[in-house]
Write a structure and sequence with these properties.
Elements lengths: L1 H9 L6 E5 L4 E5 L5 H17 L18 H5 L1
Antiparallel strand pairs: 1-2
């Protein structure tokens, strides 16, 4: 969510986000905080280095991976 807010900010829009959990009857409001932009730029630079690399990074076996939407990209 913070990446999308960052992206829109770069396009000249001042955006905020909201994540809605209907089953939990809960909403979380999201804004860019102190240091978020720097962290996003750092992560984007890491992604560029991974893409440019000749050898893909070693897979990590983390608990979070099993429920991740991108599981198929990493483990197939």
């Amino acid at each position: 969510m913070k990446y999308y807010i960052y992206y829109l900010k770069k396009k000249g829009m001042n955006a905020k986000g909201k994540i809605n959990y209907p089953k939990l009857r809960r909403e979380i409001y999201v804004e860019l905080g102190v240091g978020d932009e720097e962290k996003i730029v750092e992560l984007l630079n890491e992604i560029v280095e991974i893409v440019r690399g000749e050898i893909p990074p070693v897979k990590t076996n983390r608990v979070e991976c099993k429920g991740c939407s991108y599981f198929e990209f990493c483990w197939s």
